[in-house]
């Protein structure tokens, strides 16, 4: 589970960096990267929910 949390943090940091670049400087490529990473974050969060529920049942 710790490994999954580390992946979520890493992906969110990448998202935040690119989203800030798009918002502050109008960087379109950064916006594209942010959207791509947001899908990855969504998948990781669903995986976290699944692992968390399994963990709480033990």
Gist of the model:
With 58 residues, the protein is an all-alpha fold. Helices cover 93% and strands 0% of the residues.
Structure description:
The protein has 58 residues and is an all-alpha fold. The chain has two helices and no strands. The protein has helices at residues 2-25, 28-57. Helix 1 runs antiparallel to helix 2. The relative contact order is 0.17. The model has no long low-confidence stretch (mean pLDDT 96).
Range of strand content = under 5%
Can you give the helix content as a percent range? over 70%
Q: Which structural class should the secondary elements be placed in?
A: mainly alpha
Task: Count the beta strands.
Answer: 0
Overall shape: elongated
Radius of gyration: 14 Å
Stretches where pLDDT is under 50 for at least 5 consecutive residues are: none
- Number of H/I helices: 2
Order of helical and strand elements: HH
Mean pLDDT: 96
Major sheet characteristics: none
Distance between the termini: 14 Å
In terms of topology, how is this protein built?
Layout: H1 2-25, H2 28-57
Q: Keyphrases for this structure?
A:
elongated, mainly alpha, 0% strand, 2 helices, 58 residues
